[in-house]
């Protein structure tokens, strides 16, 4: 039996085991693979990766707080992981540990499967943390026309811009949140990559509701609740909305292919995620 595992701290509420195990069972791979979860405090990360190198696990999904800290323990990084400087997936290939980042690809696939074109379009990204960086890089690799990053701390947005400007010809601009109205006036795509909107987080929304327009595509990567205030306001304005669970699904689908070599059964994985959220 090959063991796959999601590691992080905390990890209790991770939906990854339900999503991956449903996919493995659907493809009759559940005699060959099992997907587990492990709470791994930072002090135990090195030891856990060492067990993986010895073959105890053939693939890891890596979540907070280890996405950057895991890098020194790996032998190789994919192009995306190298550019982003963070890893959410580790595979054991021979005796080499390879780090990948599927977060940005997950966001791009969620947009594309909702019918949202990216090439040449103007995207606004709210936030400049780990998820925003993966998303901005992925949008640039898809040749978005312009990427406008707004963040409470503008210097963090500037750092992402410096990375993004190295990977493609997308125009890039940064600012604090005060230029929201100007940024959204020309946005085809708006992505909230801050925790604003998550259950228990205040404020409920970062975007005044009169700034949403019919012809916008609004993605909120927050997935708890399923429909955040951003998405509700955008839907009421007639915009197309994409919930955060779609990024979770598609980043998991890319991981599944890396782990097993098989195309992910998306509908089965989506159903498992939605059931796990209830
Ligand atoms: P992170 O690295 O901690 O970054 C958080 C970002 O949000 C920072 O830019 C921070 O601004 C900003 N922010 C936080 N609280 C804010 C507030 N009250 N007002 C304004 N800005 C605020 O977090 P992350 O890993 O990027 O994750 C961000 C969110 O995405 C989380 O809710 C996470 O659960 C979700 N996520 C979802 C998926 C998915 O698959 N759907 C994947 C990854 C992450 P400063 O720079 O000013 O601190």
Task: Supply the key terms.
binds NADP nicotinamide-adenine-dinucleotide phosphate; Rossmann fold; 278 residues; six-stranded mixed β-sheet; single chain; alpha/beta
Could you explain how this protein is built, in words?
This protein is of the alpha/beta class and 278 residues long. The chain has two domains: 2-101 and 247-276, Rossmann fold (3-Layer(aba) Sandwich); 104-243, 3-Layer(aba) Sandwich (Rossmann fold), CATH 3.40.50.720. Helix content is 37%, strand content 20%. It has helices at residues 16-26, 45-53, 79-84, 103-113, 130-141, 154-164, 180-185, 229-236, 245-260, 266-277; strands at 2-8, 33-39, 59-62, 76-77, 89-93, 96-100, 122-126, 146-150, 171-175, 189-192, 217-220, 240-242. Helix 1 (16-26) links the parallel strand 1 (2-8) and strand 2. Helix 1 (16-26) packs antiparallel against helix 10 (266-277) and helix 9 packs across helix 10 (266-277). The longest helix is centred in the C-terminal third of the chain and has 16 residues, at 245-260. The protein is globular, with a radius of gyration of 18 Å. The chain starts with a strand and ends with a helix. NADP nicotinamide-adenine-dinucleotide phosphate binds at residues 103, 127-132, 151-153, 156, 193-196, 198, 221-223, 244, 247-248, 251. NADP nicotinamide-adenine-dinucleotide phosphate is lined by residues 103, 127-132, 151-153, 156, 193-196, 198, 221-223, 244, 247-248, 251.
